[in-house]
Specification:
about 40% helix; about 300 residues; Aldolase_TIM (chains A, B); alpha/beta; metal ion binding (chains A, B); lyase (chains A, B); eight-stranded parallel barrel; homodimer; hydroxymethylglutaryl-CoA lyase activity (chains A, B); TIM Barrel; 8 strands; metal-binding (chains A, B)
């Protein structure tokens, strides 16, 4: 079995929606600690306008401040050409572009239809190719609402396949299929993963799940069964679903790693080290995190026999 | 695909560990409401000594007070011959006996080794057969720690298969394989389910999962893929793991039903009705419940487009 590659998104996808700004030095400490656990990639920040996402206004300082480690790719979210230029100037390994598979989510979240996003991506790819060092940077595209849109409902599989094809034709290096609001179910995940892998066998696909309706790990299992080996996940399950107060957000990295390691599927991640980093999150964000293994311990945890009278 | 049969365990497995006693009339209202949702079975109470489980001291009144509905089996937990006699006197459809697959969990939880439990079950089966109406009662055995013991660790699959064989030889009608403390992983679940179904193709097996480490639904998916169609689940995810404070307990019924219905697997359950019952739980038990769908809504929930400036 090929080992999994986990892309840790908490520093970007998690911290951006927290109530409080996490200081730059604390972000750097978090990412440096994550880098040491064996994660394949870390989404370190977002090169968005500081007005749009004030909590990530320190993107440059974070990316320039972290210790780079061989084998750990540093990726950042990039919303436009300007963001791409800023990211490349910091020497990232990967940039991650975001578009929606559905018109209404694209308009609501990005003020762009999928067509407009594709046109914008073409411009970003030109800039990346023209920059010094740009050609060595992996350009990923995250396709939001690939498993359903909270405004429109189902997004036809044929539409997702068409958008993936157009992304790859543009020159995008890899595509992340995102279950943005936790609508996916394992049967749907199996079908879409089988379809993209059959049609684009050379492209690296990443799956991004939310646990909004409790199906995060079941969906990851279904994707892995279909042949997917790259997953986004968020330490402690940080991140959320703005439409579902109280529901958990991104699938929790340590719970995902724990499940696959228990199954005998290598993740390359030192789970104990990862749990130690996760244990620092409540102090950082000011609340408990929704992960389960951090509360229960790993499945191989042993307890003393209770003393009975 | 055959429809699933869901056995709702919240009235027994959930309420027994709550901090407060739920009044008998409220228990009856809960079970009557659950009966109307299309669940296949409901574990209504436990005929244990009132000293052992004070919260279920009203087992007779509950079972006698509920409205019986065609197609909804009423099952109760029975710890010994006396409990079996009490249960049969109330006219239950099924009794559920409990034993552990591991010596130390059996001694800690029941003060009995697996061998002692098997001997006791033989006595209970004799009593059931000798009672008026007893022959029509389904006798199920729940095998705790079938996927691992919190004191001993791994329980060999061969040992579980041996105990299942001996239960069926005794005359037990069905066996529930219980992941008592949430140690199971999907690969292990697939392997054990395939093994029991291959070796005992005629026996009705039920799977009982805990979400202690976030794998509850992933394990249910793996069991279903292996051919299992009967599941225990607990409304709202009530119930717990005494060893893991803060971790969720039993797999949540509405989340399980939601996942399978979304996959196109019939459960026979009216999910909207079930969610309405789940929404009454916080008042009943005095705290929020860990279910996800109750917070997020079903995957087909639609939201209005946000108004942007």
């Amino acid at each position: 079995m090929p080992p999994l590659q986990i892309n840790e998104v908490a520093p970007r996808d998690g911290l951006q929606i927290e109530a409080t700004f996490v200081p730059t030095a604390a972000k750097i400490r978090l990412i440096d600690a994550l880098s040491a656990t064996g994660l394949a990639r870390i989404e370190a920040s977002s090169f968005t306008s500081p007005k749009a996402i004030p909590h990530l206004r320190d993107a440059e300082a974070v990316v320039r401040g972290i210790r780079r480690r061989a084998g750990v790719g540093i990726t950042v979210l990039v919303p436009n050409v300007k963001g791409a230029e800023r990211a490349l100037a910091c020497g990232v390994d990967e940039i991650n572009l975001v578009m929606s598979a559905s018109d209404s989510h694209g308009l609501a979240n990005l003020r762009m239809t999928p067509e407009q996003s594709l046109a914008q991506f073409a411009g970003i790819l030109e800039v990346v190719a023209s920059q010094p060092g740009g050609r060595g940077v992996f350009v990923n595209a995250s396709l939001s609402t690939a498993f359903g849109c909270p405004f429109e409902g189902q997004v036809p599989e044929a539409r997702v396949l068409e958008l993936v094809e157009r992304l790859l034709e543009l020159g995008i290096d890899g595509v992340t299929l995102c279950d943005t609001t936790g609508m996916a179910n394992p049967a749907q995940v199996a079908a879409l993963c089988q379809a993209v892998l059959a049609r684009f066998p050379e492209a690296p696909f990443t799956l991004h799940f939310h646990d909004t309706r409790g199906m995060g790990l079941a969906n990851a299992l279904a994707a892995w069964q279909a042949g997917i080996t790259r997953f986004d996940a968020s330490l402690g399950g940080l991140g959320g679903c703005p439409f579902a107060p109280g529901a958990t957000g991104n699938v929790c990295t340590e719970d995902l790693v724990h499940m696959f390691e228990q199954m005998g599927v290598a993740t390359g991640v030192d789970l104990d080290a990862l749990l130690a980093v996760s244990a620092t999150l409540p102090d950082l964000v000011g609340h408990a995190t929704p992960g389960q293994v951090i509360k229960a311990g790993k499945a191989d945890r042993r307890y003393p026999m209770p003393q009975r009278s």
